Amino acid sequence: MARPKKFRRVEFFPESTYFVPWGKPKCEIDEIVLNVEELEAMRLKDIHELNQEECAEKMQVSRQTFQNIIDGARKKMVSALIEGKAIRISGGHYTTSMCKFTCIDCGNVYEIQYSQDRLKCPSCGSEKVLCSKKADFCIKWCKGEE
C-alpha cells in the first residue's frame, strides 16, 4: 500500500489563473493544468532564487519531492509554450497558513487544504466563504458596524 501524499505548503495564490495564447480562440486550443504547488515551486526556485533545500523546507517536502514537483511544472510550462496550449492554474494537494477562511453561513473558520476549500466550506458545503480578514469586514459591514 502506498504512503499517503503529504500536503505541500504554499504561500502564494495568483490572481490570474488562466492564460491563453494570443490570437487563438479559447474553444480551439488544448490546455494544461498547472497545480498550485507546481506554481509555488517555480516561484520559490526561479523568482526568489532559493536553492533546492530551502525550497523543499519552505514547502515542507523532501528535496527529492521538491525536484519532482518542479520538474513536472517546468515540463508542463514548456509544453504549453511550444505547443500553444492554454495554462490553467488549479487544484493540487496543498495547505497554507496565509489566510484562514470563514464560512458566512455556519461560522466555521479553517485553513484551506485543497483548492476546492476556497470555494466550499468543508463543514456545511456552503459556497459563502471568505478569507477571514475579508469575512470580518463583511460581517461588520452587513451589521452596519463599518
From TrEMBL:
What positions belong to coiled-coil segments? none
A Pfam short name: DUF134
Which InterPro entries does its entry note? RNA_pol_sigma_r3/r4-like, UPF0251
Q: Which domain of life is it from?
A: Bacteria
Give the family, as the similarity comment puts it: Belongs to the UPF0251 family.
Q: Per its record, how is this protein called by name?
A: UPF0251 protein EAL2_c22040
- Tell me what organism the protein belongs to: Peptoclostridium acidaminophilum DSM 3953
